[in-house]
Amino acid sequence: MEHKRRLGVLGGMGPKATSVFIDQIIESTVADRDQDHIDMVILNHASLPDRTHVILENSPEQFLREIEKDIRLLEYAEVANIAIPCNTAHYYVDEMQRMTSIPIINMVEESMKVIHDAYGDGCKVGILATNGTLHSGIYSESALKYNMVPHLPADAVQQEIMNIIYRDIKRGVQTNPAELEAIIRLLIEEDGCQCIIIACTELSIIPLSGEIKQRCVDAMDVLVKRSIELSL
User: Distance between CA 6 and CA 231 in Å, rounded?
Assistant: First the structure.
């Protein structure tokens, strides 16, 4: 009954982030042969409406209609769990979960648990994310639930983050990691954050130095680890 542990991936938000997620699952799985890897059913639904736009315009109807069709396909494929490698889409995770009895791995909650386990109550968490994710409040609310202090970047810094995501990564433009690392240093050294959550799967694509990575928790990494644990 191996198919009962099959992982469904609701992807395409964006496509590059989904491909990185799949690569990380493969690279992070301890395997000596093909059969040791986990089975996945991957839906790379790139034409879904932009999540930030949907949240800011408060118009989720078309997005959720399309998502429901994807979930039905994953049900038909008999997946055991569903992973969504897109932080912003998690604003609608409760609506999506109500559509199916298949557990959806909640990347936001799983990431905040990891940070709380490492840093404990009172940890000031800097949130690197799209405007849609910040506006949705999903990470801030989860941080508060775990007795931690959420910190959002100043407007000018947030614009730099959005430029990296939309001007560069989504358009396939090469990004200089130093740009993101400077923002992370600012949040730690000037804003007093003890940990930074990388809460945008596009930002997960940027390779960070070891020193900077030590102060960050990447939600994509957390989702990869949890997806593997639930699928073996």
Answer: 6
